Amino acid sequence: MVVGTLKLELRLPENRSLKGKRKVVRSMVDKVKARFNVSIAEVGSNDKWQKIELGISTIGNDRRHIDASLNRVLNFLESLCLAQLVDTEMEIFNL
Hints:
Blueprint: E1 2-11, H1 18-35, E2 39-44, E3 51-60, H2 63-80, E4 84-94
Antiparallel strand pairs: 1-3, 1-4, 2-3
């Protein structure tokens, strides 16, 4: 069994409220859930207006498939241009 995780840190430089941030986060999460077979959630910086931390995970039996899947999600989120990507951390575990 192979488990892949991806943690993203994004910035919303023009955002001025938590309500605006929640709208962007909800849009990102809903679009990823509709398009990919992965789990996604906001995992940190819940009270910071201009910072988003998303956690994404997937599971399978082939390391290359997990890596490709997480990279597709990353590229998709970047292509949405809803927030600036600051940092990524990807880990793939063989269990």
